[in-house]
Design a protein that fits this description.
It is globular and about 50 Å long. It has a six-stranded parallel sheet with strand order 2-1-3-4-5-6, sandwiched between helices. Helix 4 links the parallel strand 4 and strand 5 (101-104). It is of the alpha/beta class and 226 residues long. The chain folds into two domains: 3-132, Rossmann fold (3-Layer(aba) Sandwich), CATH 3.40.50; 165-220, Arc Repressor Mutant, subunit A (Orthogonal Bundle). Helices cover 51% and strands 13% of the residues. The modification 4-aspartylphosphate is found at residue 55. Residues 156-221 form the HTH luxR-type domain. Keywords: DNA-binding, Phosphoprotein, Transcription, Transcription regulation.
Length: 226
C-alpha cells in the first residue's frame, strides 16, 4: 500500500528536490504540489494525501497557519512542518497547532523518509536536534518548578529491567539529540542496526515515537540530560 504525499513549499527547487528523494521510496507517491499554505485545504480535498509536507515560511499563509486551517476542515490530516528554525518556540507552536511532525531542512533523506513513515502510521516525529532542545527546556522548567522545594533530581537509573545494555546506550544518545547515523558512528554499528534498536526500544517502552521515548526516559530518570 502506497503512502500518498503532498508537498507545499514556495521554493520550486526545494519541492523538486524533496520530490526526487521521495520517488526513490517505492511505497511513496507524491500526488500533489503547492506553492503556498492557502493551497493546503484544496489539495487535501482533491487528492486526499496521507501526509502533507508544509514549509513553515511562505508568503501568504505560513505552514503553521495552513496546518491549523487544514485540521479545522480535515481533522484526520497528518502534517509535517519543514523549517529552518530549531528554536523551541517554533516547535511548540507547530505541535500545539496539530502538526504531527517538525523537521529541519538540514535533514538527510533517510530522516525525511523515516519521519513520513512514522507520521503516516499515526505517530509523531520531531527532528533529533530539536528533540534535544525540547528535552533541555523540559528539564529547565522542571528544575524551576522544583526550586526551593528541597526536591533533587534523582540519579540516573539505567533501565536494564526493561532494555538491553545496548538499547540503554541508544536511548541515551536519542536524548542527546543524535540522529540514527550519528548514533551508529558513536557506537560503531550500522544505521540499520540502530533502526532495529530504536524499534525495539519503542516497543518495549510502549510508545509511538522517539520523542515520547525520550520524555518517558527523562520522567523516570533513565537518561542524563546533558
Amino acid at each position: 500500500m502506497q503512502t500518498k504525499i503532498a508537498i507545499i513549499d514556495d521554493h520550486e527547487l526545494f519541492r523538486e528536490g524533496v520530490k526526487r528523494i521521495l520517488e526513490f521510496e517505492k511505497t511513496f507517491s507524491v500526488v500533489a504540489e503547492g506553492a503556498d499554505g492557502c493551497d493546503a485545504v484544496g489539495i487535501v480535498e482533491e487528492y486526499s494525501p496521507d501526509v502533507v509536507l508544509l514549509d513553515i515560511n511562505m508568503k501568504n499563509t505560513n505552514g503553521i497557519e495552513a496546518t491549523r486551517q487544514l485540521l479545522e476542515t480535515y481533522p484526520d490530516s497528518k502534517a509535517i512542518i519543514l523549517s529552518i528554525h530549531d528554536e523551541e518556540a517554533y516547535v511548540t507552536h507547530a505541535m500545539k497547532t496539530g502538526a504531527a511532525g517538525y523537521m529541519l531542512k538540514e535533514m538527510d533523506s533517510d530522516e525525511l523518509i523515516g519521519a513520513i513513515k512514522v507520521v503516516a502510521e499515526g505517530g509523531s516525529y520531531i527532528h533529533p536536534k530539536v528533540t534535544h532542545k525540547l528535552v533541555r527546556e523540559y528539564r529547565r522548567l522542571a528544575n524551576q518548578q522544583n526550586k526551593g522545594t528541597g526536591y533533587q533530581q534523582p540519579e540516573v537509573r539505567v533501565p536494564l529491567h526493561l532494555l538491553t545494555s545496548r538499547e540503554c546506550e541508544v536511548l541515551q544518545l536519542l536524548a542527546d539529540g543524535k540522529s540514527n547515523r550519528a548514533i551508529g558512528e558513536a557506537l560503531y554499528i550500522s544505521e540499520k542496526t540502530v533502526k532495529n534498536h530504536v524499534s525495539n526500544i519503542l516497543q518495549k517502552m510502549n510508545v509511538n515515537d522517539r520523542t515520547q521515548a525520550v520524555i518517558t526516559a527523562i520522567k523516570n530518570g533513565w537518561v542524563e540530560v546533558r
